[in-house]
Amino acid sequence: MVAIVALVFLGVSAVGGGVPMILDPAxxxxxxxxxxxxxxxxxxxxxxxxxxxxxxxFLSLWVLWLMVGRIQVTRGGWPxxxxxxxxxxxxxx
Length: 93
Known about the structure:
By secondary structure, this protein is mainly α. The protein has one domain. It is built from 2 helices and 2 strands; from the N terminus they run H-H-E-E. Strands 1-2 form a two-stranded antiparallel sheet. It starts with a helix and ends in a 12-residue tail after the last strand. 12% of the residues are buried.
């Protein structure tokens, strides 16, 4: 149950932080000055917003969906029902 709550919090907060960074890469909605990017390889908040949205937002929500939906990942990487409540994901067909 703690993992589910943590994944919900991570996914929702990452989507809530990543979308404004993508929509306005200058940092105005988050009130983040461009000077924070001075020593980073980025010139705007666009790429960090995409990374935040995909890596932390979508992936954590996907794992949550796998856990709650009782879906198993098969050899090809596609979900299959029933793995997580039967003792973990199985790599057998």
